[in-house]
Structures are given as structure tokens and as C-alpha cells.
Amino acid sequence: MSDLVKVGPPDNQKLPKKSLGAIYFERIKKWNANRVAIVDWTGEELNYGQLLQSTVKLATQMTKLGVKKGDVITILSQNNTKFILTILAGLYIGAKMNLLNPDYTPGELKHFFEIYHPVLVFCTAKVLGNVLQLKDFFSVNVILYDTEAVDDLENFDKFVEAGTFDPGFSPTNLDPKEDVALILTSSGTTGYPKSVQLTHASLRIALLYGGDPYFLDINENERILALLPFFHIFGIGSTLAGVVHGAKLVILEKFLPYRFLSLIQKHRITKLFAVPPVLLFLVKSPLVQKYDLSSITDVLCGAATVTKETEDLVEAQLKISCVRQIYGMTEVCGAATVIPKNTKKHGSSGQVIMGHQIKICDPETGKALGVNEVGELRIKGDGVMKGYLGQEKETEEAFDEEGYFKSGDLGYYDDEGFFFIVDRLKEIIKYNGFQVSPAELESLLIQHPAVKDAGVIGIPDEKAGELPVAFVVKQPNEDVTEEEIVRYIAENISVQKRLSGGVRFIEEIPKSSSGKILKRKLKELL
């Protein structure tokens, strides 16, 4: 191995190289049946005995519906206990679990359903209307998480209760390196988000470093607040690691300040997985002073970089030694680098995690670079995705000739092997930890009859990270207002992708000779 490649620790073999269904089935049985596994924000508890019973019943019911190994099950829901039960049961039977943003519009859902062809959809009443709009295009069983009945659809609780617990049940056999466990979406620069296929072996690596004392250190003594969205790799990865390593999980449906703080105080949360807006809330909201947050000993932040000022303020507020940054992405099944436990290194995103290797390359030539030289991070390892579903060309382009995934992020490492992220080659906008594709917004804007041309960039925002802002060229003799454009986008796209940075009207979109929008020029106009 070249000195120019930074290598993480080897696989510690603390989880068997089996299917995730087999891993979870064995681990859940291992824990004391009366031990609390999950508590939700309403106070409802689920112990490991109930977790085993419910997931096996649900798996047998899915099988009765005809769901088999390799079929796709889609979940459209905000965070809740049933979401976790569904994933585990699906993994038992070898289904591919597809987790989608419940804020997706019917148009976005139709696009993804055409790719996945799910045989079963679990959702809440809130998104049911959007799912039912697709019933003319797709024949799919729908199961509702909500307790009240809607339109004679199957109710989750009744569905599970009708199942049987077979003591002789065993998960489906499969090939962990080949068979897909999760299908998640990750924005590209070509319109709709790409569909990332993560195998059982990929997610096993995330679970391994999740439990490693040097890295995330999730263990049976921890109490974790699961507040990050489960359809996002950071949210579901940290939550699933909590289940497998015996931590007590407290599930928060969505971020509400008083509920977030009261759950930390009530359940004495010890480990907090967060994104920058949550850290800003902790240091800027006067509400924080009214609660006892002294139980928190470890804070890990991902999805976007955190300023030194924010790190210092959080450390002082919570009386902890360090805020630990994580760098990663959906395509590598979570983290690529993590600041090790009890290590303070301002501005760094940490060292290479278990089972992975990273090199810094000149983005033009692909040449590997050395210490303190800035280039593109390229990542290889067991956690890296199988590829983008239905996009062979994009999958091929995502890897270099040595099989490293091209992250599109610029950074460097120091002489201690700590990585620093400095910029992005990609033009993705990071809004509150969500990836927003400018190309998707540009495509939508151009469809407006009063818009001749458009370009979208992100503008820095202390709270959200970046805000999408549109530059619009009006059609001749057309008059359209900023409010009309903002409303038009809001009506056609999910909430995270709206033009929260507003609209600027200009005479011409600056472009290169090949027709590529010069985003740098747009930034200069601001």
C-alpha cells in the first residue's frame, strides 16, 4: 500500500460476515428481553423481547403477502418506532429497504417508483394522499403507520398482531457482498437524486465502526436521541448501530425545541448525533438554559462542517472536551472519517474509519497527492456502495480506474493523518444537512412559461449552511415577480429544496463556451 493512501483500522470481526437480518436476529436475542430498546417521544417503550416478537411477526406477515428476497419495500414516514421495526423485518426476509423523504411530491415519488417498483409501501396518513395519486400507475400494497383507519387500508398494528411468532424462525440466507440492504437517495448534479444501493456488507462496516470505542463508541451504557431523519444515512446508520450495540434509543419524530430539550433532560441522553443547525440552536437559544443537559458526554456532528466558534461555544455550553466532526456521504454508507473519541482537532473531520482507505488526488490528472496537498478525496472499502440503481453510466463515472469512489469533495490530510474538507467540486447545495441539486431546480425553473433561462447556487447561511438562490432571465415581454417564482417552486418540489435564498432577476446567465453555467460568476454577482 502506497504512503499516499491513508488506511483505516482493519475489520475487527466483532460482527459476523452474514446478512444484516441474521446479525440483528442474533443480537436482539442476545440482549435481556426486559431491557428497554426503544422509547419514542410519547413515552411508549419497547423492550428487546417485544422487539424480537414484533419484528418476527412482521416478517412472517410480509412473507404471507408474497414479499420475497430481493423485493423492494418503500418507507415514507417521519421518525417513529414502527419505521425501525419495518427495516429489521424487511432485512430478515432479504428485502431491499427503500427509505424516501416523506416530503417528496407526487412527481418525485412517481420518478422513484418507476425505478424501484416497490411491492409494499409503509407510510403515514400525512403522505398517503401523494401515494394514492400514483395508484393508477402502480399496483402496490399500502400499510399505514397511523393508529386510525384510513380508506380501509391495512393498519400497521393490526397487521403485526395478526402475525405469528415462530420460535424456529430464521432469517433468509443471502450474499452479504452482493445483495442490497438499503436503497437511499443522494443528490447528483443531473436532476433527480440518484438511488444509492448499499449492500449488507456495506452496512455491516457502518455498524462495526459505530460500536468501536475509538470511533463512534455506541454501547449498552449509552442513551441516544434519534432525531436525525431516518431516510438519511446519518440518521438511520446511527440508529441501527444503537439497536445492534444495545444502546437505549429515544426517538424524536422531528426537531421541536422544547421536545428536543425535555427528552435530553428526561432520559439523560449521553450521546448526541447532530447537524450544524442543532448545534447553533444549543448555543443561541435562551430556551436551553431552562433544561439540564449535563448528561451529554459526546457530540458528533455531520452533514456539513462546523465553525471553530460554534465548536467552542458548544463545548463550553455542554462542558464537554470536544465536538467530534464526521465526514461522509450516502455512497460510503455513512462516515469516511471521524474525529476519534476524546480527541480535539479543530476544523478536522477526523481519521479514516475501519475498513476504508482514502487518497487525495489531483481532480484533473488523478495523481495521488501527499501531506497538506489539496485535492479530491477518493474512497475505497467495504462500506462503499454497490452503485446507482438504473444508472450504469453514472456508476462507472463515480469510480476511478483503481476502484476508488470519487467524492467530489476537496480536502487534504495533515502529518497525523487527520483530514480537512475545504471545498466541493460538486455544486450540490447543503441545506440543513439535505443535499439540493441546482440542476433539478434549474430544470424546473425553465419549465415556467415566463422564465427564459435560470441558474441556481447556494449562498452561505449560518443556521442552514447554505440557501438555494435562483438567478432568472425573464422571457421577452413577460413580467413575473420573485414571489410568483418562489411559490411556483414550492408547489412543485419538497420543502428542503425551496428557494429559501430568494430570486435575482438578471439579463443573461453567464456560461462557458460549452454551455455550462459559470456558477462562480453568479456568486460574484451577489
Question: What do these coordinates show?
Answer:
Helices cover 29% and strands 25% of the residues. It is built from 15 helices and 27 strands. Among the domains are: 49-175, Rossmann fold, CATH 3.40.50.980; 429-525, GMP Synthetase, Chain A, domain 3. With 526 residues, the chain is of the alpha/beta class. The longest helix is centred in the first third of the chain and has 17 residues, at 48-64. The model has no long low-confidence stretch (mean pLDDT 92). Strand 13, helix 10 (276-284) and strand 14 form a beta-alpha-beta unit. The strands form six sheets. It has an eight-stranded mixed sheet.
Record field, number of beta strands: 27
| Overall body shape | globular
N- and C-termini, Cα separation: 46 Å
Question: Biggest sheet: strands side by side, in what order?
Answer: 8-7-6-4-5-9-10-20
Question: Can you tell me the CATH class of the domain at 49-175?
Answer: Alpha Beta
Strand coverage percent = 25-35%
By DSSP (H or I, 4+ residues per run), the number of helices equals 15
CATH second-level architecture of the domain at 49-175: 3-Layer(aba) Sandwich
Structural class call reads alpha/beta
Main pleated sheet:
8 strands, mixed
Q: Could you tell me the CATH topology label of the domain at 49-175.
A: Rossmann fold
**Sequence stretches where pLDDT stays below 50 over 5 or more residues:** none
Mean pLDDT: 92
Rg measurement, Å: 23 Å
Fraction of helical residues: 25-40%
